[in-house]
Amino acid sequence: MLRTLSGTLTAVLAVAAMATASPAEAQTYPDRPIKILLPFSPGGNPDTVARILAQELTKRMGQTVVVDNRAGANGIIATEAVANAPADGYTLLYTTGSHVINPLLYKKLPYDTAKDFVPVSLVGVTRGQVLVANPRLAAKDVQELVALARPAQSNITYGSAGVGNTMHMVAEYFNSKAGTHLVHIPYKGAAPAMNAVIAGEVQVAFLNPVSAIEQVKQGKLKALAVTGSSRIPQLPDVPTVKEAGVSGFEVDGGWQGFLAPANTPPDVVAKLNKTLDDILKSPEMTQRFASMGLDVVGGPPKDMASHLDKETSVYTQIAAAANIQKE
């Protein structure tokens, strides 16, 4: 009995110590390097943005902040690693829409998307993806693409960053709305998928504007449409998919943001959030990201939590419309 009480008291004291240590941790945090895990390969738009932010965080927090690319399994590998990391603010996840999509695709995940993470900062959103094609594809607009891809045995292929990635989900939603049979070819990240379209390995892809704009301007890709409710300023002559004749199709852009393991001390989360907010509010950074097609958001963690709830609802509807079944 005494041993049981002693064990219980020790546990209570340990919890109390953790609770009282939190403010102190925040005051000294960070006192060693911070690692940002990225569920995608180098070269894609989230990688570019994450590395810019890592450089700025390094300057402002006095410790090195590094980006660790762990691509594969539609982001599950990196996300699981963060879920299992110590909840101390030294391991963060920089992720995108696949985070809320994976629970719609897989019956079992090695983590709980809702319970195993806390939001830190919603970095930005895009106004829609860009439907791009290899310049040699015999389709100069959406209607010509639809005509090529409508036969059941269509050999028109599209690349994505993996099964369940937003690129995949949006393309399947396009198939359901346009009555096409675009064939899915998954890659390990958005950058390899984009390069596959440029090389002609696949014919089309739905790319984030951050990735698409420069390639379109250089003539390496041609833009057929944007998926959002309005055209994007960087490609003013490119119509929306709805304007191009696909009724009922509209998907606004994806998001990028930071998550931390659940139970990360609130003061540490607040310090990270405040530092990121200061970075994002700087005119230089806002303009830099805008030129890449990313609209800065920032704000408190609760705003990111609300956004994730909204995204979950949107992609639940898309998965149902595209008849995507859980594996």
UniProtKB/TrEMBL annotation:
Organism: Pigmentiphaga litoralis
Keywords per UniProt: Receptor, Signal
Family: Belongs to the UPF0065 (bug) family.
Highest taxon, organism lineage: Bacteria
Protein's name according to its UniProt entry: Tripartite-type tricarboxylate transporter receptor subunit TctC
InterPro entries the record matches: BUG (IPR005064), Bug_dom1 (IPR042100)
Listed PANTHER family: BLR1237 PROTEIN, TRICARBOXYLATE-BINDING PROTEIN
Record's signal peptide: 1-26
Taxonomic lineage: Bacteria, Pseudomonadati, Pseudomonadota, Betaproteobacteria, Burkholderiales
Pfam families: TctC
